[in-house]
Amino acid sequence: MEKAFAKFGKQGGVRFHRGDAERLPFADNSFDHLWSSGSIEYWPNPVDALEEFRRVTKPGGRVLVVGPDYPNSVVMQKLADAIMLFYDEAEADQMFEAAGYTEFEHHIQQSSPGSPKAITTVATVPEAGDERDATGESVEQKAAAPGDAAAD
Question: How many distinct structural domains can be found in the chain?
Answer without folding.
Answer: 1
